Hints:
Blueprint: E1 2-5, E2 20-23, E3 26-29, H1 47-64, E4 72-79, H2 85-95, E5 103-108, E6 118-125
Parallel strand pairs: 4-5
Antiparallel strand pairs: 1-2, 2-3, 3-6, 4-6
Helix pairs in contact: 1-2
Amino acid sequence: xxxxxxxxxxxxxxxxxxxxxxxxxxxxxxxxxxxxxxxxxxxxxxxxxxxxxxxxxxxxxxxxxxxxxxxxxxxxxxxxxxxxxxxxxxxxxxxxxxxxxxxxxxxxxxxxxxxxxxxxxxxxxxx
Length: 127
């Protein structure tokens, strides 16, 4: 059965979608951008600061869904510029250690919502 996942510890949706949905043991998150969930404003700073906020938003959604980064199977990462790839990876690696990191796709895109520098969505399983 499909279930909607929602938490106030991550930004509310800025469009007609939910933070995540689950089906049986799987969790599918919507893309998270660098919005502070309290202010709904983009965090200041560059790609490192934005990536940290994105990952904290995803962490909150995973926790609400009874999961964690250890249960992530796949991520899709969107960068406004591949010039930010190394800096993005530095922060990303704080959340996913290489020996247990999930499968991942990383693509550069022309524009992201609210002109942020990074967006990440993921697929995980419940504890």
